[in-house]
Amino acid sequence: MATSDAIVQIGHVTLVVHDLDRVGAFYEDVIGLEQISRDASEARYGVDGKVLVQLLADKTARKSGREEAGLFHTAFLLPERADLGAWLNRAAEKGWRLEGASDHLVSEALYLSDPEGNGIEIYRDRAREDWPRKGGQILMATDRLDLRDVMAEARGPWRGAPSGTVIGHVHLQVGALDPAEPFYAETLGADVMARYPGANFHGWSGYHHHLATNVWNSRGAKERHQPATGLAEVGLRAEPEALAHFTERFGESVTDPWGTRFTMAAK
Fold first, then answer.
1. Domain residues of the chain, as ranges?
2. Could you tell me which residue ranges the VOC domain spans (predicted)?
3. pLDDT by residue (tens digit) across 196-221?
């Protein structure tokens, strides 16, 4: 299943940063995105001409803490396992530091952070028919990933994020799962696809997750005080019926209980 098969998918994330040059260079050089537009205070990066990451420069913004609500990671979904292998080979060659690597049963994932501490996942999905299920939910795990096996899958060198790369999901830190679940499942309409200790995974149209929430670092967190670095907005893309329903209820945007803003536009 491609995320584009869902009635709603992730379009972009907007991040507030202190150093636009340094962070922008990271998304170009390490993640392999193309620069789509840039001025003194804002830069946009993406694939196939579509913006995936928007950076807003604010040198006066408060530095967000690890224990606050907000971004856990932005997850870039590559089209094939060979692409993940090519990126991993490039990371080894350049000495880019990974913070983790996991087999999640539905996917294989690599973890790192940008220069200002915004979490990043780079992953590939297994075929939908291979996703394990139990009791109506998708089973996910955090198992060891065989990095050498992934690297051996590469069919050539990494040449930047390939055509078809998207933000597959955005994982968020919240203060509590109880108020988070009604917002994401009922207000946004993203079904609970899986539960994990301290985390819920929400998706549209049967995808394992477009959005996730956890309290691993942020249990008890209150609404974030702005302006602050980190996640400012998650932009969703939707089919006409879902877009019309969102616009009728919320207008241009809606925020979760911790101040994370969601907008929605047409696919």
1. 3-266
2. 9-125
3. 999 999 999 999 999 999 999 999 99
**55 in Cβ contact with 20 (< 8 Å):** yes
CA angle, 110 as apex, 92 and 214 as ends, to 5°? 150
Give the single-character DSSP code of 3.
Answer: G
At 245, list the tokens. 């329903």
Copy the structure tokens of residue 224.
Answer: 């974030």
Which residues partner with 184 through β-bridges? none
Q: Is the dihedral of CA 211, 103, 193, 165 positive or negative?
A: positive
3 state DSSP class of 206: coil
Write down the H helix ranges in the chain.
20-29, 81-94, 147-152, 177-181, 240-250
- 0.85 cut: is pTM over it? yes
CA pair distance 58, 45, nearest whole angstrom: 18
Residue-wise pLDDT for 99-149, tens only, equals 999 999 999 999 999 999 999 999 999 999 999 999 889 999 999 999 999
d(CA 104, CA 115): 26
| Tokens read off for 126 | 């297994």
Give me the count of residues in the chain: 267
CA distance 106 to 125: 6
